[in-house]
Amino acid sequence: MDLTSIIAQVVGGAIGGAGGGKVISGGNMGTAGNLIAGAVGGIAGGNLLTTLLPGLLGAATGDAGAAASGMDIGALAGQLVGGGVGGLVVQTIVGMLKNKFMK
Hints:
The chain has 103 residues and is mostly helical. The chain has helices at 3-23, 31-52, 64-69, 73-101. The chain has a domain at 29-59 and 72-103. The radius of gyration is 15 Å and the shape is elongated. The relative contact order is 0.26.
């Protein structure tokens, strides 16, 4: 895993977390909380996607074509989507648990 993949996962996760906080009313933790939980979930979701679907992400599997060009847009998009979904899920779960137990 390279730095570009991690950054894409964090950005995707933060976007997913922010979106989850706005869409799901019971899980909103404020802007900073949503972004942090989303970023953490983004790394987890991106890594999970890479593990489950390695053929989809050419750069993660050491594809020679992706390595020669320097950047694989498909792999980057996959990391963003995986991070976004992971961020949305983690932010929603953490937000709902926090709001349930902090009342």
